[in-house]
Amino acid sequence: MAERHPQGTRVLRRINTAAVLAAVRDADGPVRLTELVELTGLTRPTVTQAVEELLDSGWLQQHAAEPSSLGGRPAVRVSLNGRAAPVLGLDVGPHTVTAGVADLAGEQLAVTRKPVRRKGTTHLLAVIDAVTEEALAAADVTAGRVAMVAIGTPGIVDGEKGRVLFAPSIPGWSSIDLVDHLRARFRCAVGVENDANLAALAVAHGRDGTLLAVQWGERLGAGVVIDGRLHRGAGEAGEIGFIRPPGHNPRDDDGRGPLERTIGAEAITALARAAGGARLDTAADAAEVFAAAADGDPAALDVVDRVARTFAEAVAPSVLVLSPHAIVISGGVARAGAVLLDAIRRHLEDLTLTPPALELSDLAEHTVLTGALRMALDRVWRQRLAT
Amino acid sequence: MAERHPQGTRVLRRINTAAVLAAVRDADGPVRLTELVELTGLTRPTVTQAVEELLDSGWLQQHAAEPSSLGGRPAVRVSLNGRAAPVLGLDVGPHTVTAGVADLAGEQLAVTRKPVRRKGTTHLLAVIDAVTEEALAAADVTAGRVAMVAIGTPGIVDGEKGRVLFAPSIPGWSSIDLVDHLRARFRCAVGVENDANLAALAVAHGRDGTLLAVQWGERLGAGVVIDGRLHRGAGEAGEIGFIRPPGHNPRDDDGRGPLERTIGAEAITALARAAGGARLDTAADAAEVFAAAADGDPAALDVVDRVARTFAEAVAPSVLVLSPHAIVISGGVARAGAVLLDAIRRHLEDLTLTPPALELSDLAEHTVLTGALRMALDRVWRQRLAT
């Protein structure tokens, strides 16, 4: 056998330690060393060395020894110490800021939320600081222990530089160096990402294939996730709100995109009022329009069909180019349920070759925050298990 | 230090051998063992063992020893033996079949081409066999040595099963098990891929980022390549020919997609004839329409602008969703040059947030074949260097 090079040995050791850590993480409760030998296929001395290293660095914790049934030495058991590297997630919107802390196992330790009462970036940054403080306190985690901070915000984000390039819904937001502001308190990496992209990551968690995850409320955005990884492209992938429907007048520019101006929640209510009829004249919001359609109201069904057709025409070209396995819709409009989904499906069948599966997200709340925590955890784990 | 497990040792050995092979491949000409020690950071005994293994398996070849300038032992030099694993590529079209053989370094050893004179799959398979035979003979490679066969064909292809699912331009084609037919002669893996996808791989070679590579002639297709890898999605990514332009009548169905029926090369000529005028009345093909536009003929410029607008409107939604770094156009229509490209760029600027770079491919001929050879080589190398 060849002489071994120190560099090769170090690599092998990191591979082994990572394998042991991954085995403990994926196990169901505390595990004994004997089990780890079985799970990893490594020798007992290698497992012992890796466990010692991981106990030293705090990633594993040791449990009270279980007396051996054979009367021998009590067996050492270890489990993941979720608090070794907790992560902080933030969902920064024009009206609310939500913060959450999760441990390494993905368990949410705390979630706090505060309204944004005044315009201006000074106030917004103060709200961010306050809600962060509260979440850390509630989770009993100090800023110095946080392993990664991930922030979701509307607008176009330069993920690499962590800058908000364009965010018409939060005036002044693109002039702030958010990463610099947070780095003053945290010693870890700080990531910024478009909120629809983070929602897409949350929706795509545990799914393979290509996914178009749509956020549909007042605003309309999407994220593309390919085999669990966010597709960013040149920087602004998923901006479906800016698709221009045929015949749309591009001059009514108010910062919103043409498609969200045409079929966002607000536009759906306006369409219904314009259509008129007993049920629609009094419809206060999109939810009531969908409820009327579900009850069989012909005018409401017609509005839903027009909204579905406009949506299907807007996404059909991307279905042909990207060929997603599924389109998953989250956000307020997702509460419309089957009446909207069926209509979109019918139009997509007409407009594409093989229409993708069409689903409503079952993530009720905090989708952006869940995505932010997901992104942070993915990075922390990827870094820790990288070999 | 921990006892080493045999499995870990085997992994380490494969990593080392792969590192040595990659270093030889990327070197400029034959290399000495001393150079390989420097290039890989491995010890001399490890390099020696890897080189012996690679000489045995035929992937490396040994060169005449160079006498050492210090009067010591002559230094052994090795280089890649490109013929250790040659690959075969095929471009199967309705009118022509082209075959090519490349060596491991990507050098094309032979390219042959034959017309398809009669309809029917029996004749087409006979042409495929004949052109393959000729290419192998010209390259002096036996079928048994071929490491991978990759075939490009129009239509929708199930890449995993290697079946053509839908190919209206070659009647009967989807009923043939092409992989089975070729496996009878070759002992290696046989891959089938959509021709526009292979052309995209060829165009994307050596480029990072997200690329939408458009093939634009009588037919209109595209391939999506993300960081050098073909994006397949659920199976039929890149089918831009089937995007339906606004106002298009879906009933004129002849197997071609709505967009290719509207702005394919044939449709461009028809549009020009309908527009009329001194230059356009006699335009024999799309090339003459573009030439007239380049000369400033107003009617021709108007036709080009309409074609460019229809193309831009069709791809704009995918630009917003996929955010490609570049759109590269190949095929007959690419010869139109700046007059078309400028018009498309103008419309895309209006329809998207940050328009991607827009380019014409500089691959003149054999784009699909080049892509087929590329795909085959990528797989052979990936398999060989996998650790």
UniProtKB/TrEMBL annotation, chains A, B:
Could you give a single Gene Ontology term from the biological process aspect?
Answer: regulation of DNA-templated transcription
Which CDD domains is this protein grouped with? ASKHA_ATPase_ROK
Query: GO: which molecular function terms?
Result: DNA binding; kinase activity
User: In terms of domain of life, where is this protein from?
Assistant: Bacteria
- The coiled-coil regions, if any, are none
Tell me which UniProt keywords the record has, alphabetically: Kinase, Transferase
SUPFAM superfamilies hit by this protein: Actin-like ATPase domain, Winged helix' DNA-binding domain
Task: Write down the Pfam families for this protein, in alphabetical order.
Answer: HTH_IclR, ROK
Concerning PANTHER family, the annotation shows: BIFUNCTIONAL UDP-N-ACETYLGLUCOSAMINE 2-EPIMERASE_N-ACETYLMANNOSAMINE KINASE, ROK (REPRESSOR, ORF, KINASE) FAMILY
Please give the family membership noted in the entry. Answer: Belongs to the ROK (NagC/XylR) family.
According to UniProt, the name of this protein is: Putative NBD/HSP70 family sugar kinase
Which organism's genome codes for this protein? Answer: Actinophytocola algeriensis
